[in-house]
């Protein structure tokens, strides 16, 4: 593992393989949670399902205890954008819940490696405009990842996310909360904003792992922090969506470590070389 300027952590192929193992734990756990979401289930029940899935896979929840966070997932409902704490809240028809999940897998030396991803799930029937919000946010995530090329810049990702969202309607794009580098820690340099200019920021190189995570609202970009010091809500009360994947650039292309197929289907459709093993 090497380090470039700005403190970027560059992984060897073997370290990327460890991150893939963590990513698969996250991806599979999110699919279990997607299937579990229904009217009548509480966010605490979703958290218990997640912790069992992660631990039964031989991994450790990244979020549990992180800076005091009390759960294994973030579960953010409706106007809660990110960092919602699971609890007794029961989901009802028409809700939308964003679930953020992280896991740590140790390599042979005992070093832990992180995976981090998020999905937004409709609870029963949701309004068309919320369905569109989810579509736009997920598409922006994939277009951001697709914009990453060896020799490019982090700003290329930011620009792709912002350009797509702006082209789809008057959505709010959070600027105070961003994607990030990831590897031996859940949050590493560089930041990966969801707005920005192409050609700016740190250079993208083989072995640099990033988590891209657009957070988009049906209203404005302004947010408030609740009294629990974690939950971020839209100031105007508008619904929000949040999608995230961890990816890395390899010698052959792009590998989405938290996607069950490595991102091959979506990347191929976007004309991006698949870099998985």
- Along the chain, the helix and strand elements come as EEHHEEEEEHHEEEEEEEEEEH
Given as residue ranges, the uncertain stretches (5+ residues, pLDDT < 50) are: 1-5
Secondary-structure arrangement, i.e. CATH architecture: Alpha-Beta Complex
What structural category do the secondary elements indicate?
alpha+beta
Q: Percent range for helical residues? A: 25-40%
Query: Percent of residues in beta strands?
Result: 25-35%
Q: Would you kindly provide a written description of the structure presented here, covering whatever features stand out?
A:
It is a single chain. The model is unreliable at about 1-5 (pLDDT under 50). The protein has helices at about 15-35, 45-55, 130-145, 155-170, 265-270, and strands at about 1-5, 10, 60, 75, 80, 95-105, 110-120, 170-175, 180, 190, 210, 215, 225, 230-235, 240, 245-250, 255. The protein has one domain: Creatinase/methionine aminopeptidase superfamily (Creatine Amidinohydrolase, Alpha-Beta Complex). A five-stranded antiparallel beta sheet has the order 10-9-11-16-17. Strands 3, 4, 6 and 7 form a four-stranded antiparallel beta sheet that branches. Strands 5-14-13 form a three-stranded antiparallel beta sheet, with no helix packed on it. β1 and β2 (about 10) form a beta hairpin. It is globular, with a radius of gyration of 17 Å. By secondary structure, the chain is α+β, with helices and mostly antiparallel strands.
